[in-house]
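Render Ribosomal RNA small subunit methyltransferase E in 3D.
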Amino acid sequence: MISRFHFPQPLPHEGEIELPEAVAHHAARVLRLADGDPLVLFDGLGGEVEARLLLRGRAAFAELCRYREPRRESPLRLVLVQALATGDKMDWIVQKAVELGVAGVQPIQAERSVLRLAGERAEKRRAHWQQVAVSACEQSGRNRVPEVGMPMPLANWLAAGQAQALCYVLAPDGGEAAFGTGPRPAAGVQLMIGPEGGWTAHELAACRAAGCIAVGLGPRVLRTETAGLAAIAVLQARWGDF
């Protein structure tokens, strides 16, 4: 499998470019690619360029060979609204959600979220999760990088009128409607997943008041790092490209 790398600026379709230090290090030092080896570069704007690695001393360049725009994005625009989870669970959730085809991830501070983020710490975590999304695109073949939003309290997200597309909120104690039925929604779907301790009754009431539809995923209670991925797979099978 040819190695893929995200290029942080818009890519030309031909010519020769110098690779950023981080990309050059990953290609030559981590993956041990040799001079002349093939690689693929993408800038997140939808296309990718087949290229050839050129090593010149400590610098690395790419000879751009062929531009193409393969279709790898789901026809379903799906945004995961994920309550903050502890440890490396958020890394896992972001990585796998991007692999499954989400268009964006919005971290949410819920009442029962153990992880608390604000200020500079929140920005550092957001930047880290954004890089996780980039790496997931490199691995999965996606050429558009989903945006990871700044963590915000649930109340702020609802107050800003974010729940404008079809919005599902997972509630393990019972759903109010069928999940993923009817024609594909033109405006996409927002999928809300609670924290380890679940949504509070107050939060579920606020989500319903904002127009979100409570749904369940069967009789078993799933962990926060499982529920969102399972629901994404269901929606991709019904409205996406699975």
